[in-house]
Design goal:
Blueprint: H1 3-12, H2 20-23, H3 27-40, E1 46-47, H4 57-72, H5 75-80, H6 90-104, E2 113-116, H7 119-130, E3 132-133, E4 139-144, E5 163-165, E6 169-172, E7 177-181, E8 193-199, H8 211-224, E9 228-231, E10 254-259, E11 271-274, H9 277-290, H10 297-308, H11 310-338, E12 344-346, E13 353-357, H12 365-374, E14 377-378, E15 380-381, E16 399-403, H13 408-428
Parallel strand pairs: 1-14, 4-5, 4-8, 7-12, 8-9, 9-10
Antiparallel strand pairs: 2-11, 3-4, 6-7, 10-11, 12-13, 13-16, 15-16
Helix pairs in contact: 6-10, 7-9, 11-13
Length: about 425
Amino acid sequence: MCLSVLIEHLMTSRFSHFSERFTGPTGTRMLMDDLGEVLAGDIEYCNLGGGNPATIASMQTVFHGALSEAVENGEFSQISGSYDGPQGNKKFLLAVRDLLREQFGWPVELENIAMTAGSQASFFMLFNLLSGTCADGIKRHIKLPLTPEYIGYADIAIEPGSLVAERPTIEFLDDQLFKYNVDFDRFSLSDEVGAVCISRPTNPTGNVVTGTELERLVRMTGDAGIPMIIDNAYGVPFPGIVFDEVSPVYDRHVINCMSLSKLGLPGLRTGIVVAEAEIVDAIRSMNAIVNLATGSLGAMLTSKLIASGEILRLCRDIIQPYYQQRVGTAVAWCKQYLHDTGYFLHKPEGAIFLWLWFPNLPVSAQTLYERLKARQVLVIPGHYFFPGLEDPWPHMHECLRISYAQAPEQVEQGLRIIGEEVRRAFQDGR
């Protein structure tokens, strides 16, 4: 064993069991490594794998204006030169509170809202707050009513076995489309469920859990006294990347998670949690220990937009139409370049992704990912999006997630090459 390998072995053998949740191979690490490779390398990739939102010029103009104003009036110096409290920037929290009260009638107070360092931080805190071995001695888990679900849920619960998911039903629609639905014949609750969690719309599929499904989940969890977490990172009230009319859902036991990322500010890592005061107070304490305080730049750029309600107009008039036009173009390219591959496409109801399914694909989605990467096309293989699903399911290895938020020429070229590689796999049988 060479010296460098020996040193590495000796070092990692001293890592804690806690670290094993983070240092092994994960879908999130692969996704972010690919993104870093695109940004830092000399090779030009069609990056259809990452979760970056599109850069919408008119939204950037709004943010640049807010930043310039903050620099001129001294607010930037004040924000950047001091800590906010661990609950978050008070001006921002008040703006969110007033928006939720005035626009949606939610009876929320300041004690019901906290900022975090982005959605991933929100879910790390919530999942570990509500799952694992609890104070009453019961080991609880987070329940996902259907998969596929967000890749980032998979590795954030510290205790093993803290995530349990159910397989969905599949509804076939016209025009090569399909839709996942909650299988309520499988779904049940017990005292071992610490919380139920869904994303709406769902990353990776663009699925929007129907109003009937969500109403039933909220009612079931409320009757059982179990928190219901709704991940609105792509949804309402902002950024509103949803192509059908939906409204945000409030109930005392519902924990609503939001983010500024998909407005076009992913680098500012600003998450929002709206929940009962006890949950918010716990997040406040966790923020203080892990971060001391949350970052304030995202709050500074958006507080006035949120306080005035202008953020809702921007989402309605700029962000949602932008992505609706882009998804229509991407679906047309699927028809053009994948028409003879036997593909199905999940009905794109929101978010910034297309979810492709190739039934009976003779190679795994991981192998397809590697072949595509060799041709400078980055996607995410589907099996990473089934966290907590214990039973083997071939469907997991027949799907790809692609982003249509990147430059249109990249999306078109990527879909053309995906079609070529899928046809080659079927022709060669491997």
